[in-house]
Automatic annotation (TrEMBL):
Coiled-coil residues: 46-73
Compositional bias segments (type: Low complexity): 145-159
UniProt domain Disease resistance R13L4/SHOC-2-like LRR: residue ranges: 565-934
PANTHER family from the UniProt entry: DISEASE RESISTANCE PROTEIN RP (PTHR23155), OS11G0462500 PROTEIN (PTHR23155:SF1227)
Family: Belongs to the disease resistance NB-LRR family.
GO biological process, one term: innate immune response-activating signaling pathway
Domain Disease resistance protein winged helix: 432-502
The organism's taxonomic lineage, starting at the top: Eukaryota, Viridiplantae, Streptophyta, Embryophyta, Tracheophyta
Domain (Disease resistance N-terminal) ranges: 14-85
Protein name: NB-ARC domain-containing protein
Amino acid sequence: MKGVAEAAQVAHLVSYVLSKVRWAIEEDRKRKGKLKNGLAFIKGEMELVTAQVADNEENLEDATQETRILQLQELAYDIEDFIEGLSVPGGGSGFILTAMGMDSRPRELDRIDYFKENIERLRKWQPTAIASCQQHIFRGSTDHGAASSPGTSGSSEPPLHTRCRQESKLVGIAKPKEEILQLLSTAASGGRQQQLRVVSIVGRRGLGKTTLARVVYEDPAVVEQFTHRAWVVASGCKGADPQALLNRIHRDFQRGTAGTTTTDLPDKRYLVVIDDLQQADVWNDIQHAFPQNDTNSRIIVTTRVRSLADACSSGGYVYEMQGIGEAESESLFWGRMSNRLNRSNALDDGLQSILQKCDGLPLAVISVANHLQGQGHNMLVHDCKHVDQALGNYLTGTDATRAFQKIRRALAECYDNLPDHVHRTCLLSTSMFPKGHQINRKSLVRKLIAEGLVVPDVRLEKEDVAHHCLNKLIDHNIIDPILIGVNSMVKRCQVHGIMLEFTVHKSVYKNFVTLIHNDDHLPKRRTPYPIRRLSIHYGTTESTRLAREMELSFIRWLMIRSSDLIDFKACRLLRVLDLEGCKGLGKGAIGDICELLFLKYLSLRGSDVNKITKKVKKLQCLETLDIRETQVKSLPIEIIMLPRLVYLFGQFELPHLPNETGTFFSEDSSLHTLAGVVINNDCCGLEQIMVHARNLKKVKIWYKKTTPSNNSTFQYKSFRKKMNSQKPDKMDKSLLLSSIEERFTGKKALESISIDSSDLAKDFLSFLKAPCAIRSIKLQGLLGCLPDSVTLSRLRLLNELHLVSTGLGCEALSVLQILPCLVYLNLVESSDGLWGGDFIVQCDGFPSLQRLRFQAPKLPKVDIKQGALRLLTSLQLFCLESSVTMSYFPFPLISETTQLELWLGVIGISRLEHLNEVLLHSSLGDAKVQAWKRIAMEHKNLPHVRKQSK
């Protein structure tokens, strides 16, 4: 139930805050008596209020309960701010008094009394005028009951001949239908018998998965080929009765063919459609009930869960539903409208913004059309503008218009069915970003942690919890993956237009965010709650004026994109400050930022900042600093000496670090990622950090050679002598290389190193040897050669390798296939492509490789021998042309598949037993894309072929 979910959500927040209260009680040394007792009182009373809210969630109306939950949430935020103020240097409410030699406890006791009064009010809480006025503001999902599906028993479904006529009106269905039909009717190849195959249709809600499955199921050719057919809806089966879905299939077979059940099918060709499968347990319970005969039988599964689609179609095929294009969206919209409607250019223009928000989702387009259809020929541009502005209200249920009932239910189920508070919080946090923005996954995780929105559980650290939640959102097609990185990890993601509209209005109602977008302010109504998170994007001076009129003293997360800055001094409780791409960050603005004592995350990426002031030493809580793509060329020592700094991003020179800083890095520094440092022959402070920083795991280095150096390799004696010197004024490159070698093994071993320099990369390879615990290496720059095969065979922990613009030929690169545990290999050339020859992978070559990427203007001829690349699942060919110059034309003596492979430049695709995807350049011609799809159809795994996202 929705009330249960909301109560559990705020209970999770309160539990997290109470953990901080317990810490404050335990750590209190100076604040005895009343303060300590007050904190203990808060802890006990908040636990009682939370339990009371959970107990009463069924006895109160939705809006009444939600109002109480919101008030409890806001009180929890206030208590958290107070507790953190006790621990942040200079952040407590009594800091000024303490600095003046006065006792700060009276001020703190006043806050304790304030919290006591509010907790008591919540315990005796009754609906107020605020709650009454919110009764009609938001009711969440007001539609109840399961969605009707085409095959649900007892559903009012149009007869077959009516559906066939309706199919001619479906927009964008022809091509997907053709591909699914081809999968159903594919003949046996290579002497293989055609056993049972499962075809999964996967995509977000509203894309038309059920519609596609239905038109295939009722196609006359399918009806003729599959004399035994069954259609069932799985969404109602959640494991309580393992046989529930199987029983439905039995009943449907019996209705279609007299008395037939799954036990009667060993020698018959059958088709089963399992619509809206949501639970892996349900599939596990029934999959073994279908006979594995050789009659080309098929199962079609529709689901919105990617991992479930993959599990069902092991040895089969996953078809990913795509949204319809702009022209198809317009066609679908106008096809739903009355023919009497007076269509005009002005009306077309008025619809553009709505259709852009629909973002190719057919159900959204249909909902808008059904709503506007009521206006008939009187529909005006004004009506379109109203729908555009109120779309979020229609989707969330604030304005419960019947035309949006189905899509409102679908979106609400996506949100309400998320497992817990952290998953919902991760989704709500995406509403901070403007439409179309590609969200950097790791940056979002760091922001969530910095703001305290993610807490560890008994098994996982905070970062792992956040990544797990985002994986869930992506797996369930709530968030779209945009860029896939190493080990299938999504690096960038995006929220679909309609889901973003829903999420924005959900977040605004819950007082999770306040938005100013294009000078439009959400929420438009006044609320009794303070602003906690503010996002401003694409604004003018009007946006700045709106922001300046707000009370910002409680704000915790501020994001500004393409808009003027605000007064940072007013945001004293700020934890997260994201100013990516902002202008006007002069000395004054940076100085104000340095007064934000609670700040944990600061992104100035792509801004016009050119210098970081020494006042940054005040940011004792800072965990992440991102100054990439700025004019900041050097850093003051005060940044490096921040005790809680974990992630430092940019391209900068380090200051000279005196010897005594070694103790700080060994004992107090939290630095984990240093990406990256610009060095020259006078390496300055990097050696100190490399030798002493015990938490350092990831390093990126740019090497800028300033003077010729005769000593291009390290010398142990020289290194020891200089490191023992009390005044290492100048340190050459060999010293840095030796300090890197010290991070090869042991407790201080690096996880990842990136070097952008021909000279330094060559020298790094010259002493790379086992044992070495570094798992990821990226080298950019011309290389003379790679280590010998004996050395490479001993690098048993290296699982990720990037080689960029090395100038090495295919023969030289072929030695890499001896690496025993390499999982991901990325070969990038920016100019003439991979240099010369064929890339031949011999038997047993790359025994552990799962993902292989070529990125170059031209793809070399790739020849995969039998037994090579045994574990490869993903082949990524981001090349527009092939080095093979032959044209594709029929050769009578070789198979069509071999001819296609010769033309495309990759020989032996069928030998890749675990291949499940082929990614191609975004601009590759349709002829070659179709050729790859034809090859995929002949592969036993039917790997998915698609272009990379632009």
